[in-house]
Amino acid sequence: xLEMLKTNQSHQGIYIMSPSSAVADAKVLMRGxxxxxxxxFKVALDRTVLACEQRFAGTDAQRLAAFGRAVKQKLPIxxxxxxxxxxxxxxxxxxxxxxxxxxxxxxGQSDFTAFNLAFLAKTGRISYAGPTACFDFGATKTxxxxxxxxxxxxxxxxxxxxxxxxxxxxxxxRGILWGGNLAMMTALIGTPFMPKIKGGILFVEDxxxxxxxxxxxxxxxxxxxxxxxxxxxxxxxxxxxxLAEHDRGYDLNSAIDFIKQSVKIPVIPGLPFGHxxxxxxxxxxxxxxxxxxxxxxxxxLDEHLEEI
Length: 308
Fold this sequence. Notes:
alpha/beta; Rossmann fold; Glucose Oxidase, domain 1; seven-stranded mixed β-sheet; six-stranded mixed β-sheet
């Protein structure tokens, strides 16, 4: 269930770049471009969006240069073509002041979580965890709510996100929304690119990680003194893993139960975000409100934070 309260604002433009792994199929990217244009967005491609160097979308120098071009061009939204791996290589070399001063709205997920969190840590500015040009807009069939919600967030139309969360713990509070891919987040612990957030609303997701690895990463966040300082933990999609015979009943619920017993903060499952066709677009670094009631969770995204 999604509740969307709207205002009227015009569509804006998107600049697509490749900061991580190489685009596997140019046709998929172009399909994504056409869908974004159909939504009313003007779209431009970075000159190295299809570059390839080993598994990466060009050399580190090429991908750094793409960030430089992204902040100088006129379109206000900068979207990652895809995830994969490569952003963490670039973090020490990015011009954070220039990125912040550009006032661009950076959007991506998966490996792009490293940029989202580093951007918050280094500048305090908001960026977005959301769809990518290839995986989401370039898919054979798009998920209507994913594309609709992305457009509404970029146009400033989405104020409240509500979703079913049958086993959510009671919570009613406000805090900085932050998070993303769990593996990328744990990779930043102990670095200058990990935000220092207290009283935040943390959301996590991952793909291809067995439940014991998910537990281990959440436990790392807990033992690092991060998880226990949050007001709530929102669980997105955890997909693409296989249980083994020797798990003997240990599954994702077992992992989450262990974390809930270890860290006494409210846990809210069911967030529609992850490596899944359906995903919302979330402002990392924004102050939001969160509350649960009768099997439904609400996130107030509007900056005025009207009462839930």
